[in-house]
From TrEMBL:
The keyword DNA-binding applies. Residues 10-77 form the HTH gntR-type domain. It holds the Pfam family FCD. It comes from Pseudonocardia yunnanensis. PANTHER family: GLUCONATE OPERON TRANSCRIPTIONAL REPRESSOR, TRANSCRIPTIONAL REGULATOR, GNTR FAMILY. This is GntR family transcriptional regulator. Keywords: DNA-binding, Transcription, Transcription regulation. It comes from the Bacteria. The keyword Lipid metabolism does not apply. InterPro entries: GntR_C, TF_FadR/GntR_C, Tscrpt_reg_HTH_GntR, WH-like_DNA-bd_sf, WH_DNA-bd_sf.
Length: 223
């Protein structure tokens, strides 16, 4: 690929889309931050055509917004929208947990439980950044085990949009300990091969996050 206009291949566009999503998820790109085309071309060694097509796709997904003569930026979302996104995730990720419970192998069970051990260590060490990262890894692992491609595409969009609020939720007193127990329950129900209970546990976990978001909202209004 070159940094000129060029023809944007599907693979090249997908690489930039994935990279920008990851940048938002990992905190490199903040809500409202500008995403100049030239910067993305240089950062990802992509053609300008691939960058423009990627930004158009991200705009369609509600992750990026573009303004005439001002370019693209990461779209900020409201707390209420974060609540709605998490409610939608509860349904979709519940489905993924059910599918994963049926499909996961003993080796998959071992890897999931290892992630649970890692999450416990982050809580013990009071490492909120690591907690958020392992949290995301667990959700991604269960989604991947489900093999449900449509759900996966939906979750790429939903999780990217709300990630900043979920990091803030992890800062609430006692929330990582609650989240740890919920994640361990999800992992064990997936490993037990019980799709109905796995779906229920995942939904309950994410609806618990919704409650925490409401708590966050209440705390903000106290100021």
């Amino acid at each position: 690929m070159t940094a000129g206009g060029g023809t944007a291949t599907t693979d090249a566009v997908a690489v930039v889309v994935s990279a920008v999503r990851d940048g938002i998820m990992q905190g490199r790109f903040a809500p409202g931050q500008r995403l100049p085309e030239a910067d993305l071309v240089a950062l990802y060694d992509a053609s300008r055509g691939a960058v423009r097509a990627a930004l158009a796709q991200l705009e369609n997904e509600g992750i990026v917004e573009r303004e005439r003569n001002r370019g693209a930026r990461v779209r900020p979302i409201s707390l209420q929208e974060a609540v709605e996104i998490t409610e939608a995730r509860a349904v979709v990720e519940g489905l993924c947990a059910a599918k994963a419970a049926v499909k996961a192998t003993p080796d998959d069970h071992r890897k999931l439980r290892e992630l649970g051990v890692e999450l416990a260590a982050t809580v013990e060490n009071s490492d909120v950044v690591a907690y958020s990262q392992v949290n995301q890894q667990i959700h991604r692992a269960i989604r991947d085990l489900s093999g449900h491609e449509t759900a996966g595409r939906m979750l790429d969009r939903l999780r990217t949009q709300s990630v900043r609020y979920h990091y803030t939720v992890a800062l609430l007193p006692g929330r990582p300990s609650v989240g740890l127990q919920e994640h361990l329950e999800v992992i064990e129900t997936v490993c037990a091969g019980d799709p109905e209970v796995a779906e229920q546990r995942m939904r309950a976990h994410l609806l618990s996050v919704v409650d925490a978001l409401h708590q966050l909202d209440a705390n903000l209004h106290q100021w």
